[in-house]
Amino acid sequence: MGWSLGKPKRKKQYPSNEFRNLKGSKRERFIAERKSKGLTQAQLGEIVGCSASMISAIESGRVKPGLEVSMKLEMALETSFLELFCDL
Question: Is this structure's pTM higher than 0.70?
Fold first, then answer.
């Protein structure tokens, strides 16, 4: 009959259409800088004042960092925003 008792599948919601193409891309430079400093996502998140999941979302391209977070990332990684996120 077509009835299903499982959860309905939800489509991914993106804040805008520009994120639709970034689904699988990584911010390689950002990840490399974090790793070169010997930091985990959780450690960097603690320094910046956000969660490890937020750092993961930034690395995977699901979220763009806000002004405050991006400034703290620049200071923590000692690198400019344009070098960290050259693909934005």
Answer: no
